Amino acid sequence: MRSALALAGAVAAVAAGASVLAAAPAVAASAEAATLSIVSAVVAADDTVDVNVTYTCDSGYSGEILAYVNDVTASAFGGNEVAVTCDGASHSAVVAVGNDNEATEYVKGHTAAVGVALDATKTGSPDLNAAQDANLALG
User: Fold this and answer.
1) Against a cut of 0.70, is the pTM above it?
2) What is the rounded average pLDDT of the residues 70-74?
3) How many other CB atoms are there within 10 angstroms of residue 84's CB atom?
4) pLDDT level of residue 21 (50, 70, 90 thresholds)
5) Residue 30 belongs to what domain range?
6) Cα–Cα distance measured from residue 66 to residue 54, given in angstroms and rounded to the nearest whole number
7) How many domains does the chain fold into?
8) What local confidence, expressed as pLDDT, does residue 1 receive?
């Protein structure tokens, strides 16, 4: 998995307006690829943002990434990292949600930059790099 420092750097870049793809480290080309689609980002009662992302891999694996992102008001973004199985190996999915006002918690209806990036984390697995980002009104 990415280190906490790398995760924080990628999330901070997205929160600053950079694409997740641009914030993710470059990896070698691979025969395996994944397609990501951000389905929703909803503010929950506990002030987290529940992000739902679907993924489909060339190898036939598919599923959902469900990430619960805590607001970090001091730095205007929140991030979470979850494990995803794509090609039979475990990969890390980094999910970031920006906050348009770092003085407040996430607020329903506010627009947030939501991004997800997927990369290889297991020795011997093919390199896998996919990313998707969008500006969404938080539900």
Assistant:
1) no
2) 59
3) 23
4) very low
5) 4-137
6) 9
7) 1
8) 40
CB atoms near residue 109 (< 10 Å): 8
Cβ-based burial of 118 (10 A; exposed 0-12, middle 13-18, buried ≥19): buried
In single-letter form, the type of residue at position 6 comes to A
Say if residue 6 is exposed, middle or buried (CB neighbours under 10 Å; 0-12, 13-18, 19+): middle
**For 44-51, what is the mean pLDDT?**
80
Q: How many CB atoms lie within 10 A of CB 28?
A: 8
Residue with tokens 């407040």: 104
The sign of the dihedral angle between the CA atoms of 30, 81, 74, 107 is positive
pLDDT at 101: 66
Reading the block at residue 34, the tokens are 């994944």
Q: How far is CA 116 from the centre of its chain?
A: 2
- Whether 67 has a pLDDT exceeding 60, the answer reads yes
